[in-house]
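Researcher: Here's my situation. A collaborator sent me these components and asked whether they could plausibly form a single complex. I don't have experimental data yet, so a predicted model of the whole assembly would be a useful starting point for our discussion.
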Amino acid sequence: MSAQSDKQGVARRRFLATAVKATAGAGCAALLVGEVAAPSRTLAATALRPPGAKGESHFLAACVRCGLCVRACPYDTLKLADLADPASSGTPYFEARQIPCEMCEDIPCVVACPTGALDKGLTDIAQARMGTAALVGHETCLNVLGLRCDVCYRVCPLMGKAITLDMRHNERTGKHASLIPVVHTDACTGCGKCEKSCVLEEAAIKVLPTELARGRIGGHYRLGWEEKAKHGGELVDGIIDLPDRGYTPPSLGPSLGKEFKP
Amino acid sequence: MSAISERIPGREAVKAKGWFRAHKWLLARRASQLAFLALFLSGPLFGLWIAKGTLASSLTLNVLPLTDPLVALQSLLAGHWPETAALAGAAIVLAVYAALRGRLYCSWVCPVNVVTDTAGWLRRRLGWKDGVSLNRRTRLILLAGILIASAVTGTIAWEVVNPITQLHRALVFGSLFAGGIAWTVLAAIFLFDLAVAPRGWCGNLCPVGAFYGLVGRFGRVAVSAPRRAACDSCMDCYQVCPEPHVISPALRGAGSEVIQSPDCTACGRCIDVCPQDVFALGLKGTAGAAPLRQGERL
Ligand code: SF4
Ligand code: SF4
Ligand code: SF4
Ligand code: SF4
């Protein structure tokens, strides 16, 4: 072995060590930063994204947290999250109970977004899905109690489509009806007007991020009727059709599920 | 030895040139940092909208989009193709810093610079010399790390942490004055620079500075030492420079008197504190690069 090649060996080892160290360091940094960045994919229940926002995981790849949407909003609905706020730091969100979205026809927030985090494909604000309303206070909602509040129903920009009042027998009095606010997820934009206007101290109707509000059925469920329709007939031949009992309990009386039109 | 260690850098320069000339570039930089902030603040404060948005992305006078290229790069790595406005904005910013000098961002625009400068100043005043010395390359490793994190997590990872935009947002959108806690990040940086590692944040860790350093390697703006013959080795420039390693080749070397390292932020503090007026700031490769001022004492 000559001194020359010895020197080369040392240099090569040193180079390799440096390369490995740098790679390990970058990996360590990636893990640390990634750890902070990754959990922010989920959104707290109270935080709603602006209209046109891509799904949460795409949104965090696209939104640069510039606040141009916030500046464009004429109602001061949107704000940028601070460190302790319920959305990832610096991202735009709103809380329905504070200032709901007024569903501007020209959707200035989407127009202002420079990155496409708010999708310019959204041109009809009624197609926005900022979240989904759900009646959560089934013991406190005044309408459920049999009173006629109706406020959420009446403030809904899509009254009669996103919220309907469904008639139910009032078991307490035995002779009246309760008009239950029912949200229809195919029409609700998640603007938050209903939650904002609920007259209770703590709103009985709340707008939640859609994944939270809607639930998810899970891939393993097979709904018999859908399978049947897909199949174009009975899936199992020769099932015996037993006769019905011919008894209807009072709670399943004729008023159930009927829609009330005031 | 005590003569050097008790010497407060800048004192001699004030004596030799007067307070104003010994703080000329510092004042200019503070004015520039303030002006950049004012562009964003005139809207929310006085209804006079000049720049909207933040340093991450903004729209000036409703026509000029500007986007931080590092943020756009992370977005691309995370799997999103930004719209034209953001991409054009990133290209403009990239072009400007590539042409001038990347790290001009650090000392003329970045609001965190005020925090770390203050920590550095306090450190010198207190005479604290020791501290952890980190490897300068750490910031490059951190830069690689955040790019990997963006690609792997599919998020603009650094923006969750980035103290620069954190501070800028908190100032421009007012949360700093409304109970926001972004200041805690700044406090952490201040204490880190003050008590743990001198010039640690900007000099060793900040991946944004590392990025701008890389893109602006060949920028034209540079500091040089045209009167290096007059240097009496008082070491004041080394004391105040946020990247002291960049000075020696130009000041002591036999080669070019222009500071070549892309790490130099062109802050001009070395020019200010030098009692001998050794340094100058100008454009590389023009007559202005090394102006020998007329009528000065040597
Ligand atoms: S649609 Fe209008 S009110 Fe709603 S967030 Fe956008 S700008 Fe604000
Ligand atoms: S304008 Fe777009 S990129 Fe900027 S904060 Fe709003 S959603 Fe994010
Ligand atoms: S959030 Fe409430 S008010 Fe808005 S569309 Fe949905 S149901 Fe109607
Ligand atoms: S060499 Fe001078 S201009 Fe460059 S960073 Fe150091 S003090 Fe600032």
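Model: Some features of this prediction you could bring to your collaborator: Chain A has eight helices and seven strands. Helices of chain A lie at 3-37, 56-62, 68-72, 108-112, 151-155, 193-197, 210-214, 224-231.
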